[in-house]
Amino acid sequence: MQSSGHRFRDVEHHPLLAENDSYDSSSSEADMAERVWFIRDGCGMVCAIMTWLLVVYADFVVTFVMLLPSKDFWYSVINGVLFNCLAVLALSSHLRTMLTDPGAVPKGNATKEYMDNLQLKPGEVIYKCPKCCSIKPERAHHCSICKRCIRKMDHHCPWVNNCVGEKNQRFFVLFTMYIALISAHALILCGFQFFSCVRGQWTECSDFSPPVTVILMIFLCLEGFLFLTFTAVMFGTQIHSICNDET
């Protein structure tokens, strides 16, 4: 398709939006979309809630099962402050990742007027997304869940109910790092607690009964091992992608 001396590529050959079909960026709906970013995906919202619940569960076991019953005051204080600080940082990073626009391309900007304003060179090729009718920048990809083209899209992560892209990748990297750290910390504390309980023959080991204490700590160990493995690998791949400027 020829337009103003340059080529316009569209995989599905959808026509350009007419000028009277372009969106009104001054409308209240568009303004609200610019201020608030939240993906209404059922699976993603369930996964995000599960993430918070798992962190809260880990904090409960660490605080009330392992640290508060301990007779070593400074051991409890130092580890309690450290673990809770990492948990708060992890949840705040998760919230920033979920509620930050990952770099969405404006919908419906593939109009002839907009293309003329780009001042493209003759023969230069530009691409239009046939699903959201937007001109796709380099390395932008369309997300079927967000229903938008995302700049430098890495992937859509259900655990944060959002795409990881140009504007929120730093928060996602911090989230994976903090989760990996608190998972490792929880596993270390579980190891010390098991050793202490076995040595003391489970007497005054916890305010809970020995069977309940064992069950809570086993679930925490499984959670810590799974999330340490997952987030450590994800953190490593993200750092590698950033260093090599890849997605």
TrEMBL record:
GO terms for molecular function: protein-cysteine S-palmitoyltransferase activity. The keyword Membrane applies. The chain crosses the membrane at residues 42-67, 73-91, 171-194, 214-235. It comes from the Eukaryota. Keywords: Acyltransferase, Membrane, Transferase, Transmembrane, Transmembrane helix. Residues 128-247 form the Palmitoyltransferase DHHC domain. GO terms for cellular component: membrane. It catalyses: L-cysteinyl-[protein] + hexadecanoyl-CoA = S-hexadecanoyl-L-cysteinyl-[protein] + CoA. Its main location: membrane. It is a multi-pass membrane protein. It is found in: Membrane. Coiled coil: none annotated. Its EC number is 2.3.1.225. InterPro entries: Palmitoyltrfase_DHHC, PFA4/ZDH16/20/ERF2-like. The DHHC domain is required for palmitoyltransferase activity. Belongs to the DHHC palmitoyltransferase family. This is Palmitoyltransferase. It comes from Pygoscelis adeliae.
